[in-house]
Structures are given as structure tokens and as C-alpha cells.
Backbone:
């Protein structure tokens, strides 16, 4: 793509890609079913990584993509690329378009906000379950070992995206399940899953994993603000100071609980002052976090 060309909408890219793949399969005529599914899974996984900055377009395209991807993933849950894309898709959709809308509705319609949070929790659970199923298919007995702190576990590079999105989705589910003790009790498992990813690749996502570790440090029993701050600062460093989400996470994870309104505003200001980067893998996430930063700034007095 030329540097200044307009990005192709994700749904259009997806349909074009599927059309090309279908034509290729028709020409081959005798392609085995598993080969067809594998090629389709590869195409869908690649589409899941495509750049997009238009939030409304991403929101409208996501349900089609996720439903189709789920149907392709179901008979081959071990496909790491597609499983990670689906887990990440459900997690991002829940955070950006459902849970955030619930936050915005809190002041005017608490019932609608609660309904949205229940829906977001279901979406987070769906994302977590896809990641866990893929890890279990790739490493039989993984779920049992994860629940045993003394069990030795190690992940490979291909497993890290699954562990990251599984842990992120699990954390989101737990954060919306205050009235479900059994779900909240899974926090150590979610943290261990994130820790396994951290041990395998602490630089994953150019700071995304470090930021998640910071959020878990804030949430875990015995976690400290100083420990969380180190993770958030590492996320900022790994991103070259360009991660909008890392500054927002530090504002919500450190400054807000401490009641430090000045630091809260300053961190959000830093997030919004970052220049928009060329379309890339983090484009959508950056736009989501810019929108959240603006909303947090506008509602700072109500949050302190």
C-alpha cells in the first residue's frame, strides 16, 4: 500500500481475499477438506491483523468476521493464528464497543449500562475460551497444569499471542464479574497465563503485554503501585513512547486509584499529544484509546 493511500475497508479486504481463495480452490477441484479449511483459516487470521483506523467501520465489520472465523476455527482449534485473531477480536470488540459504551451510559441509564456490561462479559468469556481451547489443543493437559502452581509450564513463540489474548480476555471478564465469586477466584489463573507469555516474550506487542502485566499487578492481592508503575513504564519504553494505551493504562491503574488528579490529567494529556502513526497493526487500538482518553479527561471531576 502506498504511504498516503486510503486503507481498504476490512470487510472489503476480507471479501476480496475469500473470493480469491475460493477461486483458487475451485481451480484445484480436488483439494481435501482439511486443506481448504487450513487455507481459509490462514486467510482469516491475516485479515484479523489488517490495519484499520475507522472505529465505526471496524465495529460494523467485526460481527461478520468473528462469526465466520468461529465457524472455520471450530474444526481446527489448534490453528494458533486464527485462534489468536478470534480471541483478540472478541476481546477488542468487548472493550472498545460494549464495555466503553456502558461506561458512557452510567450517568444517564444505569440499567442499559448494566446490560451492556453483561454482554461485554459474555464476549470476553468467548474470547478467553477460544484462546484456552487452542492452547489445550496444542498442549494437551494445559488447563490442568495451569491450575497447579507447582506444575512446570513453558510456552513457545507461537503460543504467546494466544496467552496474551486469553489473559486479557480473562482479566476483562473478571473485572465485570464482581458478583460472581467463582469467576473472580480465577484471577490467579489469568495472571499465571499472562506471566507465561511474559516469560516467553516480554516485548510482545511492543509493550502491550507489559501494560497488561501492569493492570494485573494493580488487581492482584499483594500487588503494589510501584510494581505496576514499573510494568507501565516498560510498556511505554517498549513502544518508543508512542503507545496511547500505555499512558491511559497508567493513568487509570496508578493515578486514579491514588486520587492524583494532576497526574491523571497529565498522563492522559501525554496520550492525546502523541502524533497519529501511519496505518499499522496498532492503529485501531490507538484510536480506541484516544477516544477513551478524551472521555476520561472530560469526566475527570466525576471520577475523583
Residues:
Amino acid at each position: 500500500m502506498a504511504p498516503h493511500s486510503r486503507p481498504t475497508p476490512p470487510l472489503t479486504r476480507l471479501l476480496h481475499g475469500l473470493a480469491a481463495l475460493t477461486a483458487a480452490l475451485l481451480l484445484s477441484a480436488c483439494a481435501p477438506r482439511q486443506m481448504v479449511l487450513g487455507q481459509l483459516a490462514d486467510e482469516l487470521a491475516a485479515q484479523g491483523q489488517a490495519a484499520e483506523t475507522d472505529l465505526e467501520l471496524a465495529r460494523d465489520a467485526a460481527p461478520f468476521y468473528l462469526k465466520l472465523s468461529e465457524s472455520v476455527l471450530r474444526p481446527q482449534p489448534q490453528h494458533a493464528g486464527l485462534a489468536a485473531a478470534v480471541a483478540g477480536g472478541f476481546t477488542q470488540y468487548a472493550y472498545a464497543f460494549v464495555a466503553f459504551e456502558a461506561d458512557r451510559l452510567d450517568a444517564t441509564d444505569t440499567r442499559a449500562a448494566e446490560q451492556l456490561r453483561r454482554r461485554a462479559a459474555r464476549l470476553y468469556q468467548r474470547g478467553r475460551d477460544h484462546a484456552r481451547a487452542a492452547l489445550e489443543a496444542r498442549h494437551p493437559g494445559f488447563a490442568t497444569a495451569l491450575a497447579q502452581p507447582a506444575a512446570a509450564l513453558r510456552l513457545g513463540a507461537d503460543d504467546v499471542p494466544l496467552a496474551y489474548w486469553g489473559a486479557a480476555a480473562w482479566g476483562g471478564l473478571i473485572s465485570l464479574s464482581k458478583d460472581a465469586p467463582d469467576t473472580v477466584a480465577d484471577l490467579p489463573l489469568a495472571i499465571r497465563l499472562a506471566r507465561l507469555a511474559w516469560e516467553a516474550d516480554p516485548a510482545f506487542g511492543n509493550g502491550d503485554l507489559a501494560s497488561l502485566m501492569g493492570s494485573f499487578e494493580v488487581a492482584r492481592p499483594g500487588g503494589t503501585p510501584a510494581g505496576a508503575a514499573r510494568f507501565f513504564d516498560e510498556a511505554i519504553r517498549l513502544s518508543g513512547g508512542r503507545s496511547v494505551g500505555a499512558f491511559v493504562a497508567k493513568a487509570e491503574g496508578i493515578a486514579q486509584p491514588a486520587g492524583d488528579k494532576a497526574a491523571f490529567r497529565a498522563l492522559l494529556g501525554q496520550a492525546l499529544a502523541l502524533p497519529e502513526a501511519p496505518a499499522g497493526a496498532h492503529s485501531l487500538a490507538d484510536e480506541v484509546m484516544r477516544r477513551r482518553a478524551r472521555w476520561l479527561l472530560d469526566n475527570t471531576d466525576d471520577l475523583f
